[in-house]
């Protein structure tokens, strides 16, 4: 991953924020929308693109574009910084390889305890039955 090139590729768009805020919301375009075309990116290798497509599949639209937005702050510059930070963190976490799970053997004491509890429960239920003479 080429981080410098990655920071140059996203497109930023400023729009008016929704919600309460009075005249500031009505006048100032402080909400920032970041859109990043993953398929046409030059910052990743093909293997990295496949991994990102797999891990971020729920966040990508049908064209393979990742869209993030931020309207937490009144300042457009601060919102741009926040959305860029989130974007970098999202990409870095998606590129991390998961450790393979190592299956462990169930201890004999645990199996014995489970079967003992099961037997006790069965006896308890059996003792509640009506006895047929």
UniProtKB/TrEMBL annotation:
Protein name as annotated: Aminoacyl-tRNA hydrolase
PROSITE patterns: RF_PROK_I (PS00745)
Record bears the keyword Hydrolase: yes
Keywords, comma-separated and alphabetical: Hydrolase
Entry EC number(s): 3.1.1.29
Enzyme class: hydrolase
One of the protein's GO biological processes: rescue of stalled ribosome
PANTHER family the record matches: PEPTIDYL-TRNA HYDROLASE ARFB
Molecular function GO terms recorded: peptidyl-tRNA hydrolase activity; ribosome binding; translation release factor activity
UniProt entry tagged with the keyword Signal: no
InterPro entries: Pep_chain_release_fac_I (IPR000352), Pep_chain_release_fac_I_sf (IPR045853)
Disordered, as annotated region: 1-22
Annotated Prokaryotic-type class I peptide chain release factors domain residues: 16-32
The family this protein is said to belong to: Belongs to the prokaryotic/mitochondrial release factor family.
Pfam families: RF-1
Phylogenetic lineage: Bacteria, Pseudomonadati, Bacteroidota, Flavobacteriia, Flavobacteriales
């Amino acid at each position: 991953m080429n981080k410098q090139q990655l920071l140059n590729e996203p497109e930023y768009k400023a729009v008016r924020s929704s919600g309460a805020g009075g005249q500031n919301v009505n006048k100032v375009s402080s909400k920032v929308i970041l859109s990043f075309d993953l398929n046409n990116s030059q910052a990743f290798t093909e293997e990295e693109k496949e991994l990102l497509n797999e891990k971020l599949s729920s966040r990508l639209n049908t064209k393979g574009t990742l869209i993030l937005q931020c309207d937490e702050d009144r300042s457009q510059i601060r919102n741009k910084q926040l959305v860029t930070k989130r974007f970098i963190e999202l990409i870095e976490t998606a590129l991390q390889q998961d450790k393979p799970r190592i299956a462990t053997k169930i201890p004999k004491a645990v199996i014995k305890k489970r079967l003992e509890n099961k037997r006790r429960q069965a006896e308890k239920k059996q003792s509640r039955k009506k006895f047929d003479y």
